[in-house]
Amino acid sequence: xxxxxxxxxxxxxxxxxxxxxxxxxxxxxxxxxxxxxxxxxxxxxxxxxxxxxxxxxxxxxxxxxxxxxxxxxxxxxxxxxxxxxxxxxxxxxxxxxxxxxxxxxxxxxxxxxxxxxxxxxxxxxxxxxxxxxxxxxxxxxxxxxxxxxxxxxxxxxxxxxxxxxxxxxxxxxxxxxxxxxxxxxxxxxxxxxxxxxxxxxxxxxxxxxxxxxxxxxxxxxxxxxxxxxxxxxxxxxxxxxxxxxxxxxxxxxxxxxxxxxxxxxxxxxxxxxxxxxxxxxxxxxxxxxxxxxxxxxxxxxxxxxxxxxxxxxxxxxxxxxxxxxxxxxxxxxxxxxxxxxxxxxxx
Length: 347
Ligand code: BGC
Description:
40% strand
Protein backbone atom coordinates (compact mmCIF):
# COMPACT_ATOMS: atom_id res chain seq x y z
CA UNK A 1 0.00 0.00 0.00
CA UNK A 2 1.44 3.40 -0.86
CA UNK A 3 2.43 5.68 1.97
CA UNK A 4 0.29 8.63 0.83
CA UNK A 5 -2.83 6.47 0.97
CA UNK A 6 -1.80 5.11 4.39
CA UNK A 7 -1.23 8.59 5.76
CA UNK A 8 -4.73 9.54 4.53
CA UNK A 9 -6.17 6.50 6.32
CA UNK A 10 -4.66 7.72 9.57
CA UNK A 11 -4.69 11.51 9.49
CA UNK A 12 -8.14 12.08 10.96
CA UNK A 13 -9.91 13.60 13.92
CA UNK A 14 -11.66 10.94 15.98
CA UNK A 15 -13.36 11.51 19.36
CA UNK A 16 -11.93 15.05 19.24
CA UNK A 17 -8.41 13.60 19.06
CA UNK A 18 -6.23 14.76 16.21
CA UNK A 19 -4.52 11.62 14.89
CA UNK A 20 -1.54 11.40 12.56
CA UNK A 21 0.79 8.68 11.32
CA UNK A 22 4.25 9.69 10.20
CA UNK A 23 6.72 7.48 8.30
CA UNK A 24 10.42 7.30 9.14
CA UNK A 25 12.51 6.28 6.12
CA UNK A 26 16.15 5.37 5.60
CA UNK A 27 18.35 5.00 2.52
CA UNK A 28 18.01 1.20 2.62
CA UNK A 29 14.29 1.39 2.02
CA UNK A 30 13.10 0.67 5.58
CA UNK A 31 9.90 2.52 6.50
CA UNK A 32 8.51 2.74 10.01
CA UNK A 33 5.03 4.13 10.62
CA UNK A 34 4.53 5.90 13.95
CA UNK A 35 1.04 6.98 14.99
CA UNK A 36 0.51 9.55 17.73
CA UNK A 37 -2.55 7.62 19.00
CA UNK A 38 -0.73 5.54 21.63
CA UNK A 39 2.74 6.62 20.36
CA UNK A 40 2.65 3.35 18.46
CA UNK A 41 4.49 1.55 15.70
CA UNK A 42 1.90 0.80 13.00
CA UNK A 43 4.20 -0.44 10.22
CA UNK A 44 7.79 -1.71 10.07
CA UNK A 45 8.43 -2.35 6.40
CA UNK A 46 11.60 -4.13 5.23
CA UNK A 47 12.45 -4.35 1.51
CA UNK A 48 13.34 -7.89 0.47
CA UNK A 49 13.79 -9.53 -2.95
CA UNK A 50 11.79 -6.83 -4.76
CA UNK A 51 8.94 -6.99 -2.32
CA UNK A 52 8.21 -5.45 1.04
CA UNK A 53 7.76 -7.39 4.27
CA UNK A 54 5.88 -5.70 7.10
CA UNK A 55 7.18 -7.27 10.32
CA UNK A 56 4.64 -5.92 12.83
CA UNK A 57 0.99 -6.80 13.35
CA UNK A 58 -1.49 -3.97 13.00
CA UNK A 59 -3.96 -2.26 10.71
CA UNK A 60 -3.97 -0.02 7.66
CA UNK A 61 -6.49 2.45 9.07
CA UNK A 62 -6.93 4.27 12.35
CA UNK A 63 -10.52 3.15 12.98
CA UNK A 64 -9.42 -0.46 13.56
CA UNK A 65 -6.95 0.65 16.22
CA UNK A 66 -9.77 2.34 18.12
CA UNK A 67 -11.72 -0.94 18.11
CA UNK A 68 -8.79 -3.09 19.28
CA UNK A 69 -7.47 -1.24 22.31
CA UNK A 70 -7.09 -4.24 24.57
CA UNK A 71 -4.40 -5.93 22.48
CA UNK A 72 -2.03 -2.92 22.62
CA UNK A 73 -0.84 -3.31 19.01
CA UNK A 74 2.53 -1.52 18.73
CA UNK A 75 1.81 0.96 21.53
CA UNK A 76 3.95 2.71 24.08
CA UNK A 77 2.69 1.15 27.32
CA UNK A 78 2.62 3.42 30.37
CA UNK A 79 2.73 4.79 32.95
CA UNK A 80 3.35 1.34 34.23
CA UNK A 81 3.76 -1.52 31.79
CA UNK A 82 2.67 -5.00 32.88
CA UNK A 83 0.90 -5.96 36.10
CA UNK A 84 0.67 -4.43 39.58
CA UNK A 85 -0.94 -6.87 42.01
CA UNK A 86 -4.45 -5.81 43.02
CA UNK A 87 -3.61 -2.32 41.72
CA UNK A 88 -2.07 -1.50 45.11
CA UNK A 89 0.77 0.98 45.29
CA UNK A 90 2.34 2.26 48.51
CA UNK A 91 4.71 5.24 48.38
CA UNK A 92 5.95 7.32 51.32
CA UNK A 93 3.44 5.51 53.61
CA UNK A 94 0.50 6.50 51.38
CA UNK A 95 -1.49 3.80 49.57
CA UNK A 96 -2.89 4.43 46.11
CA UNK A 97 -5.60 2.33 44.47
CA UNK A 98 -4.80 2.01 40.77
CA UNK A 99 -7.26 1.12 38.01
CA UNK A 100 -8.11 -2.61 37.92
CA UNK A 101 -8.65 -4.23 34.54
CA UNK A 102 -7.20 -7.74 34.46
CA UNK A 103 -8.00 -10.56 36.89
CA UNK A 104 -8.16 -8.14 39.83
CA UNK A 105 -4.83 -6.57 38.89
CA UNK A 106 -3.76 -3.39 37.14
CA UNK A 107 -2.43 -4.37 33.68
CA UNK A 108 -0.64 -1.80 31.50
CA UNK A 109 -1.99 1.00 33.74
CA UNK A 110 -5.68 0.14 33.39
CA UNK A 111 -8.24 0.74 30.67
CA UNK A 112 -6.97 4.25 30.02
CA UNK A 113 -3.26 4.61 29.60
CA UNK A 114 -0.57 5.89 27.27
CA UNK A 115 -1.88 3.46 24.63
CA UNK A 116 -5.17 5.22 23.98
CA UNK A 117 -4.40 8.92 24.21
CA UNK A 118 -3.25 11.26 21.43
CA UNK A 119 0.35 12.32 21.99
CA UNK A 120 1.58 15.70 20.85
CA UNK A 121 4.07 15.55 17.97
CA UNK A 122 7.05 17.70 19.02
CA UNK A 123 9.16 17.17 15.89
CA UNK A 124 9.14 14.88 12.86
CA UNK A 125 11.55 14.22 9.98
CA UNK A 126 12.53 11.25 7.82
CA UNK A 127 15.00 10.17 10.55
CA UNK A 128 13.04 10.68 13.74
CA UNK A 129 9.83 11.64 15.48
CA UNK A 130 9.41 12.82 19.06
CA UNK A 131 6.10 12.65 20.90
CA UNK A 132 5.00 14.04 24.23
CA UNK A 133 2.19 13.25 26.65
CA UNK A 134 1.42 14.93 29.96
CA UNK A 135 -0.40 12.46 32.16
CA UNK A 136 -2.47 14.30 34.80
CA UNK A 137 -1.84 13.79 38.52
CA UNK A 138 -4.02 10.84 39.57
CA UNK A 139 -4.54 9.36 36.10
CA UNK A 140 -5.47 5.68 36.61
CA UNK A 141 -4.71 6.30 40.29
CA UNK A 142 -0.97 7.08 39.92
CA UNK A 143 0.41 10.05 41.87
CA UNK A 144 2.10 13.02 40.17
CA UNK A 145 1.69 14.81 36.88
CA UNK A 146 4.00 12.84 34.62
CA UNK A 147 5.50 14.48 31.54
CA UNK A 148 6.75 11.84 29.16
CA UNK A 149 8.50 11.99 25.78
CA UNK A 150 9.21 9.14 23.40
CA UNK A 151 11.58 9.59 20.49
CA UNK A 152 11.82 7.03 17.66
CA UNK A 153 14.92 7.36 15.41
CA UNK A 154 15.65 5.20 12.37
CA UNK A 155 19.38 4.89 11.65
CA UNK A 156 21.40 4.10 8.54
CA UNK A 157 22.33 0.77 10.18
CA UNK A 158 18.67 -0.29 10.12
CA UNK A 159 18.21 0.22 13.82
CA UNK A 160 15.11 1.80 15.32
CA UNK A 161 16.08 3.50 18.58
CA UNK A 162 13.42 4.31 21.14
CA UNK A 163 14.34 6.85 23.82
CA UNK A 164 11.94 7.37 26.72
CA UNK A 165 12.16 10.32 29.13
CA UNK A 166 9.84 11.18 31.99
CA UNK A 167 9.60 13.42 35.03
CA UNK A 168 6.97 13.79 37.70
CA UNK A 169 5.69 16.50 40.04
CA UNK A 170 5.38 13.94 42.88
CA UNK A 171 7.16 10.71 43.79
CA UNK A 172 5.67 8.01 41.58
CA UNK A 173 6.49 4.77 39.72
CA UNK A 174 7.25 4.42 36.01
CA UNK A 175 7.77 1.47 33.69
CA UNK A 176 7.57 2.03 29.94
CA UNK A 177 7.77 -0.40 27.04
CA UNK A 178 6.83 -0.89 23.42
CA UNK A 179 4.19 -3.53 22.70
CA UNK A 180 4.87 -4.37 19.04
CA UNK A 181 3.84 -7.84 17.95
CA UNK A 182 6.52 -9.05 15.55
CA UNK A 183 6.15 -11.62 12.82
CA UNK A 184 9.38 -11.60 10.84
CA UNK A 185 7.77 -13.71 8.13
CA UNK A 186 5.29 -10.89 7.61
CA UNK A 187 2.47 -13.24 6.73
CA UNK A 188 -0.02 -15.61 8.33
CA UNK A 189 2.46 -18.46 8.86
CA UNK A 190 2.89 -17.59 12.51
CA UNK A 191 5.98 -17.35 14.65
CA UNK A 192 6.61 -20.84 15.98
CA UNK A 193 9.49 -21.59 13.60
CA UNK A 194 11.31 -18.32 14.28
CA UNK A 195 14.82 -18.91 15.67
CA UNK A 196 15.04 -17.12 19.02
CA UNK A 197 17.80 -16.33 21.50
CA UNK A 198 17.37 -14.57 24.86
CA UNK A 199 20.27 -13.34 26.96
CA UNK A 200 18.96 -14.63 30.29
CA UNK A 201 19.97 -17.31 32.81
CA UNK A 202 16.89 -16.63 34.92
CA UNK A 203 13.21 -16.01 34.29
CA UNK A 204 10.41 -14.91 36.63
CA UNK A 205 7.81 -17.58 37.42
CA UNK A 206 4.27 -16.20 37.83
CA UNK A 207 1.17 -17.08 39.81
CA UNK A 208 -2.16 -17.87 38.19
CA UNK A 209 -2.93 -14.17 37.62
CA UNK A 210 0.39 -13.36 35.96
CA UNK A 211 2.11 -11.81 38.99
CA UNK A 212 5.76 -12.88 39.54
CA UNK A 213 6.22 -15.04 42.62
CA UNK A 214 9.39 -13.05 43.42
CA UNK A 215 11.74 -15.92 42.61
CA UNK A 216 14.43 -15.77 39.93
CA UNK A 217 14.29 -19.31 38.51
CA UNK A 218 17.06 -20.85 36.44
CA UNK A 219 16.11 -21.35 32.79
CA UNK A 220 18.40 -24.38 32.57
CA UNK A 221 16.49 -27.60 31.70
CA UNK A 222 13.21 -25.69 31.21
CA UNK A 223 11.33 -24.42 28.13
CA UNK A 224 12.58 -20.95 29.16
CA UNK A 225 16.15 -21.71 28.13
CA UNK A 226 16.83 -19.60 25.02
CA UNK A 227 20.54 -19.09 25.76
CA UNK A 228 21.31 -21.12 22.65
CA UNK A 229 19.17 -20.25 19.62
CA UNK A 230 16.15 -22.51 19.23
CA UNK A 231 12.74 -22.49 17.61
CA UNK A 232 10.29 -20.32 19.52
CA UNK A 233 7.65 -23.04 19.30
CA UNK A 234 9.87 -25.96 20.28
CA UNK A 235 8.53 -26.24 23.84
CA UNK A 236 5.51 -23.95 23.73
CA UNK A 237 3.14 -26.91 24.20
CA UNK A 238 5.29 -28.36 27.00
CA UNK A 239 3.53 -29.49 30.18
CA UNK A 240 5.84 -27.32 32.33
CA UNK A 241 3.50 -25.70 34.92
CA UNK A 242 4.68 -22.19 33.99
CA UNK A 243 3.91 -22.76 30.30
CA UNK A 244 0.46 -24.01 31.29
CA UNK A 245 -0.21 -20.97 33.54
CA UNK A 246 0.98 -18.57 30.82
CA UNK A 247 -0.86 -20.38 27.99
CA UNK A 248 2.56 -20.24 26.31
CA UNK A 249 5.22 -17.65 27.06
CA UNK A 250 4.01 -14.60 29.01
CA UNK A 251 6.97 -14.16 31.34
CA UNK A 252 9.74 -11.75 32.20
CA UNK A 253 13.38 -12.71 31.80
CA UNK A 254 16.19 -11.29 33.94
CA UNK A 255 18.66 -10.03 31.35
CA UNK A 256 22.36 -10.70 31.86
CA UNK A 257 23.97 -7.33 32.52
CA UNK A 258 25.98 -5.47 35.12
CA UNK A 259 24.15 -2.16 35.33
CA UNK A 260 21.79 -0.09 33.22
CA UNK A 261 23.95 0.04 30.11
CA UNK A 262 22.55 -0.72 26.65
CA UNK A 263 23.11 -4.45 26.18
CA UNK A 264 21.90 -7.30 23.99
CA UNK A 265 18.56 -8.70 25.16
CA UNK A 266 17.26 -11.03 22.48
CA UNK A 267 17.14 -11.90 18.80
CA UNK A 268 14.73 -13.62 16.44
CA UNK A 269 15.01 -14.71 12.82
CA UNK A 270 12.05 -15.34 10.52
CA UNK A 271 12.33 -18.84 9.05
CA UNK A 272 10.72 -17.86 5.73
CA UNK A 273 12.34 -14.45 5.17
CA UNK A 274 15.62 -14.77 7.07
CA UNK A 275 14.94 -11.29 8.47
CA UNK A 276 16.70 -10.94 11.82
CA UNK A 277 15.62 -8.70 14.69
CA UNK A 278 18.03 -7.92 17.51
CA UNK A 279 16.94 -6.11 20.65
CA UNK A 280 19.19 -4.06 22.90
CA UNK A 281 18.03 -2.30 26.04
CA UNK A 282 19.02 -0.40 29.15
CA UNK A 283 16.18 -2.15 31.02
CA UNK A 284 16.85 -5.06 33.42
CA UNK A 285 14.16 -7.32 32.00
CA UNK A 286 12.21 -8.42 28.97
CA UNK A 287 8.74 -9.94 28.83
CA UNK A 288 8.37 -12.58 26.13
CA UNK A 289 4.71 -12.72 25.14
CA UNK A 290 3.67 -15.11 22.39
CA UNK A 291 0.32 -13.45 21.62
CA UNK A 292 -1.48 -16.07 23.71
CA UNK A 293 -4.68 -14.05 23.99
CA UNK A 294 -4.98 -12.57 20.48
CA UNK A 295 -8.63 -12.92 19.61
CA UNK A 296 -9.12 -13.15 15.83
CA UNK A 297 -8.86 -9.53 14.63
CA UNK A 298 -8.61 -9.07 10.89
CA UNK A 299 -5.34 -7.22 10.38
CA UNK A 300 -3.23 -6.00 7.49
CA UNK A 301 -3.66 -7.98 4.25
CA UNK A 302 -6.73 -9.66 5.71
CA UNK A 303 -4.61 -11.80 8.05
CA UNK A 304 -6.50 -13.08 11.09
CA UNK A 305 -4.54 -12.46 14.29
CA UNK A 306 -4.89 -15.40 16.61
CA UNK A 307 -2.71 -16.89 19.35
CA UNK A 308 0.94 -17.17 18.18
CA UNK A 309 0.43 -14.82 15.21
CA UNK A 310 3.01 -12.46 16.69
CA UNK A 311 5.42 -12.22 19.60
CA UNK A 312 6.37 -9.26 21.79
CA UNK A 313 9.84 -8.57 23.16
CA UNK A 314 8.77 -6.06 25.86
CA UNK A 315 11.85 -4.53 27.45
CA UNK A 316 10.97 -3.25 30.91
CA UNK A 317 11.36 -3.48 34.67
CA UNK A 318 9.73 -6.52 36.23
CA UNK A 319 5.99 -6.79 36.72
CA UNK A 320 4.71 -5.78 40.15
CA UNK A 321 8.09 -4.19 41.05
CA UNK A 322 6.46 -1.62 43.40
CA UNK A 323 5.32 -4.48 45.68
CA UNK A 324 8.44 -6.58 45.39
CA UNK A 325 11.35 -4.98 47.29
CA UNK A 326 13.81 -7.54 45.85
CA UNK A 327 13.23 -6.31 42.28
CA UNK A 328 15.07 -3.30 40.79
CA UNK A 329 13.18 -0.18 41.79
CA UNK A 330 10.68 1.59 39.51
CA UNK A 331 10.48 4.62 41.82
CA UNK A 332 10.76 8.01 40.11
CA UNK A 333 11.30 10.78 42.64
CA UNK A 334 9.67 14.16 42.07
CA UNK A 335 11.91 16.30 39.88
CA UNK A 336 14.22 13.41 38.82
CA UNK A 337 14.62 12.36 35.20
CA UNK A 338 13.61 8.86 34.08
CA UNK A 339 15.52 7.64 31.02
CA UNK A 340 15.33 4.39 29.13
CA UNK A 341 16.48 3.19 25.69
CA UNK A 342 15.58 0.20 23.56
CA UNK A 343 16.88 -0.55 20.07
CA UNK A 344 15.27 -2.84 17.47
CA UNK A 345 17.94 -3.64 14.88
CA UNK A 346 17.17 -5.35 11.59
CA UNK A 347 19.58 -7.32 9.40
C1 BGC B 1 0.88 -9.23 28.82
C2 BGC B 1 -0.22 -10.22 28.52
C3 BGC B 1 -1.41 -9.46 28.05
C4 BGC B 1 -1.02 -8.65 26.86
C5 BGC B 1 -2.14 -7.81 26.35
C6 BGC B 1 1.19 -8.49 27.57
O1 BGC B 1 2.19 -7.55 27.82
O2 BGC B 1 2.03 -9.87 29.30
O3 BGC B 1 -0.54 -10.98 29.64
O4 BGC B 1 -2.47 -10.31 27.74
O5 BGC B 1 0.06 -7.81 27.15
O6 BGC B 1 -1.89 -7.51 25.05
